[in-house]
Amino acid sequence: MTAIDKALYYLNIKPRTRQQVIDYLQKKEFEQDEIDAAVRELEEYRYIDDYNYCQLYFEMGFEKSRGIGRIKRELLSKGVDKEIIEEALENMGQVPDQYDMARQLAESILQTLHDEDKQKLKAKLARRLAGRGFAADVVYRTVNQVIR
Hints:
The protein is an all-alpha fold. The chain has helices at residues 3-13, 18-27, 32-44, 50-63, 68-77, 82-90, 98-110, 118-131, 136-146.
């Protein structure tokens, strides 16, 4: 099987970033020049498109109530260039309001937390929101808004 065949098989499962395909082909012990040629051809035919991947990943992340920070970190860990991530975010049609998203998530989380101490409750909620990738100012404002 050629590098391009292996890459197409890998891409057929789900969309992947350029770096994920490169890592996969390296793991399959293809020569670097073969990998470069395969990736170049796949990009030419748009089977690999990090910009499009970012836009889809942002949409999926927003649907899962993830903050912009977490989505960016995940994309970086998948090998996407920071400039591509920023460009994809800037060109998103409509980015959900982070405060509204955090507030809705916080209200949902509060239903599962049953702590009498207000400070502990605030701390738990803040950690959960921060873990979802919301910026510190969004977390602070949301926690103080839903817990009074």
